[in-house]
Design brief:
By secondary structure, the chain is of the alpha+beta class. It has helices at 14-32, 66-77; strands spanning 2-9, 39-46, 52-53, 56-57. It has 2 helices and 4 strands.
Length: 79
Amino acid sequence: MSIISCDLREGRTDAQKRSLAAGLIDAVRTATGEPLTEMFMVIREGRGIDFIEAGEHLPDYAEDNANDSGLVENLRRGS
């Protein structure tokens, strides 16, 4: 069984979380051949202060945050 764990800053809509879940599940299915019936995913949310990158606490999530846009683009490119 594949278990996908995703930690996010609070603030995404239910639609965004559904889209994220669908994309991650599809990526794991493509990479592993795991059937959907053998997959489990959990999304955990926390405030920005709960996430620390390079020793710095992150701000709370804000739609269209420039830092988030760069991160998403890097993930799409596989960087």
